[in-house]
Amino acid sequence: MPNAQYIKSMFDDISSRYDLLNDLLSAGTHRLWKKKLINSALKSETRSVLDCATGTGDIAFGFEERSIQKITAIDFSPLMIKAANERKLKKGSCIDFQVQDVSNLPFKEEEFDVATISFGIRNVENLEKSLQELSRVSKNLFILEFGTPENNLWKKIYFSSLKAYFPVFSLLTKRSDAYDYLISSSEKFPSGEKFCSLLKKHTSFTEIKYHPLFGGIAYIYEAKRLI
Ligand SMILES: C[S@@+](CC[C@H](N)C(=O)[O-])C[C@H]1O[C@@H](n2cnc3c(N)ncnc32)[C@H](O)[C@@H]1O
């Protein structure tokens, strides 16, 4: 289980290089996946969005580009929110960025049409409470997260090539432990059907689906309430 203080200090420490690291390590693929998440989440009735574990705000800015008016974005790392606010200033954006913990959200029941969390749920210390909170404050939930490929050969190739990237990461940041953490947490985190079972157990959503990306390197989960 991730330790909140460790995770917060790690993301504070890599916040100034986070965007560059993301682009280099994923060869830009994270942008395509984030676009896919936003497209899945956008329906004609979507007026308000909460993006949790927003980091430097990629998902929140993506929704703003798609003309969503009410966007709130939270992260518990003050330095990630500082970086997001610097981007906000440059873009002349209206997003409300706040330092908050996803396991204790200061919002009303179903305040948001949509909640999203991209590459964040794997990092929360209290997964059960965080899922309950996401389900409480939103009508629909969309999650993008790393996972484990179901095919064993692909799984081996993927995780060993991730390890080969380690020197690049070490060159770019003093927190090389962040890269170890990325690999080990992705290997351990429940994905696909297993994560859907957790969504069923800890949320009030009734319609739960998942879509593997690149053979299960990552997954998009959709959780909705049938009206
Ligand atoms: C890998 S980054 C993802 C950032 C962004 N969503 C993206 O996709 O680029 C994970 C983020 O989760 C945040 N985080 C981890 N645990 C959290 C919690 N309990 N509450 C809020 N944010 C949290 C970290 O501070 C970090 O910014």
Main sheet makeup: 7 strands, mixed
State which percent range the strand residues make up.
15-25%
Ligands in the model, by name, code or SMILES, are: S-adenosylmethionine
Shape label: globular
Give the helix level as a range of percent.
40-55%
Query: How many distinct beta strands?
Result: 7
Describe the structure.
Helices cover 48% and strands 20% of the residues. By secondary structure, it is an alpha/beta fold. The protein has a single domain (4-224), classed as 3-Layer(aba) Sandwich (Rossmann fold), CATH 3.40.50.150. Strands 3-2-1-4-5-7-6 form a 7-stranded mixed β-sheet, sandwiched between helices. The protein is globular, with a radius of gyration of 17 Å. The protein starts with a helix and ends with a strand. The mean pLDDT is 93. The chain binds S-adenosylmethionine. S-adenosylmethionine binds next to helix 1 and helix 4.
Topology:
Elements (H helix, E strand, L loop, with lengths): L3 H11 L3 H9 L2 H13 L6 E5 L5 H8 L4 E6 L2 H14 L4 E4 L12 E7 L8 H11 E9 L5 H13 L1 H7 L4 H12 L4 H10 L4 E7 L4 E7 L3
Parallel strand pairs: 1-2, 1-4, 2-3, 4-5
Antiparallel strand pairs: 5-7, 6-7
Helix pairs in contact: 3-4
S-adenosylmethionine (SAM) binds next to helix 1 and helix 4.
Quick gist of this model?
The chain has about 230 residues and is of the alpha/beta class. The protein has ten helices and seven strands.
Label this structure with key terms:
227 residues; alpha/beta; 10 helices; binds S-adenosylmethionine
